[in-house]
């Protein structure tokens, strides 16, 4: 029993280390392309060295770091290949997620999404986008996409999507982000998608989610 408890504790430490690492990465406390040592990871995550040593293979498997001979560990670098691959994977998953969401989401869930987006769009339409509003817009934006994917009720897909979302968010921070002047237009794109959900129109939902993701990809690629 004690041995099993110890194993659960080790898994918990690994999960905590992973979550803390990704939080620090998205908070821009470490940067894409930056080299980092095990000691710096210990300081960053405030986790013991043993947990960090077990964390590193997972980060490598997820493509969040890579080991370069004679140089050490490097945080994922944002380049054209990563952008194309990450957005291609996102598009594949979210097309199916949108189709499924039309079929399985409740009327209340769709209405809640509509109200959240409408309120932000109305606030942004005044022309004054505060930092707080920008943060809420980003949260609502990603919240809808995460909800769609989770509705597939496929843990494997959700896990793959979560890792890819970290890469997409890194790309957005470095290349695009939601700029204050884009909040209203992004909310408008989402509202059109939500209207397709309300109409239970699968083909329209898939078409609009495709256009939405392709717009983001084009901005990231600076096309």
Query: What name does the CATH topology of the largest domain carry?
Result: Four Helix Bundle (Hemerythrin (Met), subunit A)
Stretches where pLDDT is under 50 for at least 5 consecutive residues are 1-8
CATH architecture of the largest domain: Up-down Bundle
Number of self-contained structural domains = 2
* N- to C-terminal distance: 58 Å
Secondary structure tally: strands: 3
Structural class: mainly alpha
Give the overall average pLDDT.
Answer: 89
- The CATH homologous superfamily of the largest domain is called GntR ligand-binding domain-like
The topology string of helices and strands comes to HEHHEEHHHHHH
Q: Could you give a short account of the major beta sheet?
A: 3 strands, antiparallel
Rg over C-alpha atoms, rounded to the nearest angstrom: 19 Å
Strand order of the largest sheet: 1-3-2
Helix content: over 70%
What is the overall shape? Answer: globular
Number of helical runs?
A: 9
Instruction: Please indicate the percent range of residues in DSSP E strands (runs of 2 or more).
Output: under 5%
Q: Class of the largest domain, according to the CATH hierarchy?
A: Mainly Alpha
Give a short synopsis of this structure:
By secondary structure, the chain is mostly helical.
What does this entry look like structurally?
It is a single chain. By secondary structure, the protein is mainly alpha-helical. It has two domains: 2-75, Winged helix-like DNA-binding domain superfamily/Winged helix DNA-binding domain (Arc Repressor Mutant, subunit A, Orthogonal Bundle), CATH 1.10.10.10; 80-221, GntR ligand-binding domain-like (Four Helix Bundle (Hemerythrin (Met), subunit A)). Helices cover 74% and strands 4% of the residues. The chain contains nine helices and three strands, in the order αβααββαααααα. It has helices at residues 2-26, 38-45, 49-61, 80-104, 107-124, 131-150, 155-175, 183-198, 202-221; strands at residues 35-36, 65-68, 72-75. Helix 4 runs antiparallel to helix 9 (202-221). The longest helix has 25 residues, at 2-26. The N and C termini lie far apart (58 Å).
